[in-house]
């Protein structure tokens, strides 16, 4: 029977080998900026400049998969951010915890310029309250989703990496609870990270393998969730989405898509009393959309724009947008997560599954 110290020796050896191959790095980033009121009504919340501090853990992906080579060995990380949005009475402290990818546009021996994309959970200390916090017109829930988009330049000196970025952090609940104009921290940032092991220089290996996915793919997705529209406290209603789509792959990293949409949104009756007493088929809308996607092996991140071709009553706008991701969980099955909006106003979440074929 092996002695305990033998197991510790094996564990330390494995960790050391992993560190030499692709070491994790621990970093700290400071943000300074302001609350960006993307809707005129949000100006009431702006009282000064905001600051934030972020602790993150990051690792460069090994580049052993085709999609990782397409993006010049991107990095995966998790960031915890604490933000002071300069309005302690109405907003208070804001937190977010999100996984992210850093995708290099250009990469040299010591530095790279790229985009960080993250999506996770957010927390806002003070939400809207009709009596106690009626001027908090941006967020109607404490627990929200959090999204980050940041352009960053990073320069490595040995195991230390210095970075500078310009980005936006967004907190929103997707109209699950009104109000939901959302909070946006637009900031410049400086960061420093220290690798926990020797850093291997990046070596660009051209990918000559055939594409891992077909040039054209068809899919049908069914999704649902709940939403609230009109005024706070008007009640949540279920919403269903049926999405048919054709996607054409343009390059190893990108694709275009076009499709048709059918929505059945119970919240339409909130703003339109003429629909009261009618059955759910009366709440059906139809639309068409086009979109663009970034591809990551089995997964993708997409942005779409669509227009209603039929709606029983006017909605928030004549056009809609969809930001989301899909993951191919099996040969024919895929998972779908998206946020549908009307310009900067969230409409509803979509959680669902679909069938695909080539």
Characterise this structure.
By secondary structure, the chain is mostly beta strands. The protein has 2 domains: 21-195, Porin, CATH 2.40.160.20; 216-357, Beta Barrel (Porin), CATH 2.40.160. The protein is 8% helix and 55% strand. The chain is built from 3 helices and 16 strands. The chain has helices at residues 4-21, 66-70, 268-271; strands at 24-35, 49-60, 75-84, 93-107, 111-124, 143-157, 160-172, 183-195, 216-227, 237-249, 254-265, 284-296, 299-310, 319-327, 333-342, 345-357. The protein has an 8-stranded antiparallel barrel with strand order 1-2-3-4-5-6-7-8. Strands 9-10-11-12-13-14-15-16 form an 8-stranded antiparallel β-barrel. β3 and β4 form a beta hairpin. The longest helix is centred in the first third of the chain and has 18 residues, at 4-21. The model is unreliable at 1-20 (pLDDT under 50).
Q: What key phrases describe this protein's structure?
A:
358 residues; mainly beta; Porin; 2 domains; eight-stranded antiparallel barrel; eight-stranded antiparallel β-barrel; 3 helices; 16 strands; flat; disordered N terminus
In short:
With 358 residues, the chain is mainly beta.
């Amino acid at each position: 029977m092996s002695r305990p110290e033998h197991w510790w020796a094996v564990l330390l050896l494995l960790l050391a080998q992993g560190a030499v191959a692709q070491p994790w790095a621990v970093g700290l980033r400071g943000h300074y900026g302001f609350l960006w009121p993307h809707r005129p009504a949000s100006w009431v919340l702006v009282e000064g400049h905001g600051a934030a501090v972020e602790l993150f853990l990051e690792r460069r992906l090994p580049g052993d998969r085709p999609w990782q080579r397409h993006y010049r060995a991107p990095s995966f990380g998790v960031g915890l951010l604490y933000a002071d949005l300069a309005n302690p009475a109405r907003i208070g402290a804001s937190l977010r915890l999100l996984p992210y990818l850093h995708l290099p546009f250009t990469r040299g021996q010591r530095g790279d310029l790229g985009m960080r994309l993250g999506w996770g959970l957010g927390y806002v200390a003070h939400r809207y309250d009709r009596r106690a916090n009626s001027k908090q017109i941006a967020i109607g829930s404490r627990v929200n989703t959090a999204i980050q988009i940041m352009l960053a330049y990073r320069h490595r000196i040995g195991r230390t990496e210095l970075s500078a970025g310009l980005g936006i952090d967004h907190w929103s609940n997707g109209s699950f609870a009104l109000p939901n104009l959302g909070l946006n921290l637009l900031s410049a940032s400086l960061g420093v990270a220290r690798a926990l092991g020797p850093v291997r220089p990046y070596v660009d290996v051209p990918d000559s393998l055939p594409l891992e996915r077909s040039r054209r793919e068809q899919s049908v997705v069914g999704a649902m969730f709940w939403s609230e529209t009109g005024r706070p406290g008007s009640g949540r209603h279920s919403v269903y989405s049926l999405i048919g789509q054709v996607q054409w792959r343009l390059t190893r990293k990108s694709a275009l898509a076009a499709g048709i949409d059918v929505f059945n949104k119970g919240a339409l009756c909130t703003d339109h009393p003429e629909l009261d007493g009618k059955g759910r088929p009366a709440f059906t809308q139809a639309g068409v959309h086009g979109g663009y996607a970034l591809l990551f092996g089995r997964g993708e991140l997409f942005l779409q724009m669509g227009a209603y071709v039929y709606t029983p009553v006017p909605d928030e706008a004549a056009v809609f947008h969809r930001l989301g991701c899909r993951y191919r969980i099996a040969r024919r099955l895929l998972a779908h997560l998206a946020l549908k909006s009307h310009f900067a106003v969230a409409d509803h979440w979509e959680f669902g599954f679909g069938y695909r074929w080539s």
